[in-house]
Amino acid sequence: MKTIAFLISFIVSFFSFGQKYTLIHSTKSLIGNHSIYHPLFDGMPVFNQFLKQNIFNREIQNFYSEIELTPLNRKLFSSDTILKVKSGFLNKNGTLIPVSAITIIDIKGKSYTLYINQKRKTIHHLSHNLNLKDTTISGTVFYPDPLSSSGKAYGGDFIDNNNKTNIYLNDELREVNLTASFKDSLFLLENKHLKIVNQSSPDIQPTAKTTSKFNFNRSETGFEEINALYHITRFAEYLKDSIGFKDIMNYQIAVDVYALNGNDQSEFINSTSPPRLNFGQGGVDDAEDADVLIHEYAHAVSHSAAPGSLQGYERLAMDEGFGDYWAAVYSKILNEFNYKEIFNWDGHNEFWEGRSLDHERTYEEGLEGNKYIDGELFAAMLMDIRDNVEDTTADKIILQSVYSWYPNMTFSDAIEQIMKADTLLNNAENSGTILWLACKRGFLTKNCENISKTNIWNLEIDYSMLNQGILSLTEPINNESVKIFTVEGKLIFSTILNGKELQLPKYSSGIYILQIGTLTKKIILKN
């Protein structure tokens, strides 16, 4: 990976030194503006090079990255539906290669962008299908699935049994009220967040009724539609209303719960307008399990916050882990039983093994090379944060950090963005805890020597004892940087400390941010 980070204390244009850029996407978060660009050559984009820019108040972050080419033994077919064509270049070992970038959907509903050179060979490609391998008004739903609500394990009366129901599974149904639409004397399964559609085989049209009751059991057509409409809507409302991300997912996503020719797989497709979610029916129907619904919708959330950034192996694994994290979060909101076991109903059975966030794997042990397995590690790191920081605070920090994600970033880069988000949202109130957790999981190694949870929680700044403007720490430090910022982020003091005490200049009474190494704390100075 090639990454160069520039931290600038005032807004300047990066369109300097003769280099020009073209905007790919831009988003606005709670604390800043986030844009991603391609550099231009002869007025055309270099498709595998990126500049991600995050603007926070008076600070700019620029991250430059380049993606290695991934050839594909595939050409255009007459059966492909072409969505978009654009000319540009790919950079390979310093040589710019002219290509046509052609975004298509094939006859199976799969979407790709093919980068085809002048010899008509696909020398690079992107897949726009984010698959979960065997991943999934009043009405009845599972809450969030029949195993979580009953406290049971898969087996006995709680099995798929070729989509048949029984009295035990029916006992786990819950009647809920949910927002839908009414048009031409029919109740339709859509609202501002999503629309139930038929966009992939088999050809099953969305359920519409003349009455407002949509009570189905799992053996009946219509159950998965209500289950998807309820859980995706409730999760979207949590992100928008409970933790404040009003502008995330500002479109109605198309959802097909009887899709992919009945295969045991689900996917998010970002190349269509609007993007799509498809849920297969192999094994346990994917849309019966809220974990699958939320995991796939979380891909859409990530794309909404950081469009154009989903390139590079660890970035792909991060997206899988991001989906697993939100699946666990949503499960815990409804029912805490086994919430760290992901895809409780859809997986952990004869069809596939499911996933889990309840493990002690570390980044230092190495990645497996499977984005789903490595995504489990990233998700466990995110859940570590939520286990040690107040729930909604952690959710807000983590989602805010995603706006700053960029192509080819690593798990360690993601932790730095999480700590940055906490600094801007909460004056770094939780960054010490996040640092300790990241060191424990091996996501960070710098500034991890002699760090422990005890040391973090016991770091205190005490001015009542020493009334001469002397900063007194509970533990001595050696050759470590000490900085003080205003709450607006302006650096007003910087030095190197050896020991426990430091004489500070005289400042006006108020709240300041103390940074020792990468650890930050809010302090109050009194004259």
Task: Summarize the model shown.
The chain has 527 residues and is of the alpha+beta class. Helices cover 25% and strands 31% of the residues.
Write the topology of this structure.
Elements: E1 4-8, E2 21-28, E3 33-41, E4 44-45, E5 49-56, E6 59-66, E7 81-92, E8 95-105, E9 111-116, E10 122-127, E11 129-133, E12 138-142, H1 146-150, H2 167-171, E13 173-177, E14 181-183, E15 186-188, E16 194-196, E17 208-209, E18 213-214, H3 223-242, E19 253-256, E20 265-269, E21 276-279, H4 290-305, H5 313-334, E22 341-342, E23 355-356, H6 371-388, H7 391-402, H8 411-426, H9 431-441, H10 453-458, E24 470-486, E25 491-503, E26 510-516, E27 519-525
Q: Indicate the overall shape.
A: globular
Q: Sheet bearing the most strands, described?
A: 6 strands, antiparallel
Q: Could you give the count of β-strands?
A: 27
Structural domain tally: 4
Please, what is the average pLDDT? 88
- The structural class is alpha+beta
CATH architecture of the largest domain: Roll
Tell me the radius of gyration: 25 Å
Fraction in beta strands: 25-35%
Structure, described:
There is one protein chain. With 527 residues, the chain is of the alpha+beta class. The protein has four domains: 4-66; 81-127; 133-388, Elastase, domain 1, CATH 3.10.170; 459-525, Immunoglobulin-like (Sandwich). Helix content is 25%, strand content 31%. It has ten helices and 27 strands. The chain has helices spanning 146-150, 167-171, 223-242, 290-305, 313-334, 371-388, 391-402, 411-426, 431-441, 453-458; strands at residues 4-8, 21-28, 33-41, 44-45, 49-56, 59-66, 81-92, 95-105, 111-116, 122-127, 129-133, 138-142, 173-177, 181-183, 186-188, 194-196, 208-209, 213-214, 253-256, 265-269, 276-279, 341-342, 355-356, 470-486, 491-503, 510-516, 519-525. Strands 1, 2, 3, 4, 5 and 6 form a six-stranded antiparallel beta sheet that branches. It has a five-stranded mixed beta sheet with strand order 11-20-21-19-16, with helices on one face. α5 crosses α6, α6 (371-388) runs antiparallel to α9 and α7 packs across α8.
